[in-house]
Amino acid sequence: MPRRSPREVRAAVPGGQSDGAVSTLLISACPGPPACTAVHTYLFVDGLDVITRSDSRMAGLDPRRLLRPGGPLYPTDMPCTVDVATQEHPEPGPDRLTIRVRLRGDTVTWSDLMYPGPDDRPIEEVRFRLKQYLGEVERAFAALKDGP
Questions:
Q1: Residues 6 or more apart from 4 whose CB is under 8 A from it?
Q2: What is the helix (H) or strand (E) element at residue 59, kind and residue range?
Q3: Is residue 2 very low, low, confident or very high in pLDDT (cuts 50, 70, 90)?
Q4: Is the preceding peptide bond at 63 cis, omega within 30 degrees of 0?
Q5: Average pLDDT in the 23-27 region?
Q6: Which of 10, 35, 55, 58 is 20 to 30 Å from 116 at the Cα level?
């Protein structure tokens, strides 16, 4: 799978979340050494890197952990809190980044967020169409199995 830079992702998904809008998810993975110290996941919502914008000290967890079938990003009717990132180099403050994932009808909701949107206003919740969301999680997982 070709890796997209954050700039390419922003260009592919113009604008950002607005009240009541449905967002678009794009998942990518860093291959690890020599590009980075470890394999980690990027989560882009409407072209914005949720992890880096939430806390620049964090790096996404290993994609095999997050994206596996039935794994933590798969939504259920019962809301669940999911660790999506941890600090690469521990510093004072929170050592992990979590989101709350819930399925309601054909909508997947991520809540308990706090990152600046394209207009620098805080984004606290985003919603995805179930079909696009699951399609992206499954596409990203398949890309892992296929290798770089």
A1: 12, 26, 28
A2: strand 58-60
A3: very low
A4: no
A5: 96
A6: 35
The pLDDT-based confidence of 112 (bands split at 50, 70, 90) is: very high
Other residues' Cβ atoms within 10 Å of the Cβ of residue 65? 15
48-99 residue pLDDT tens? 999 999 998 899 999 999 998 899 999 999 999 999 999 876 665 568 999 9
Token reading at 136: 């992206």
Residue 143: φ, ψ to 5°: -65, -35
Cα–Cα dist 96/33, whole Å: 22
Q: Residue 113 to residues 20, 45, 57, 128: CA-CA distances in angstroms?
A: 16, 12, 16, 14
Beta bridge partners of 58: 87
What DSSP string runs through 84-139?
A: EEEESS--SS--EEEEEEEEETTEEEEES--EE-TTSPEE--EEEEHHHHHHHHHH
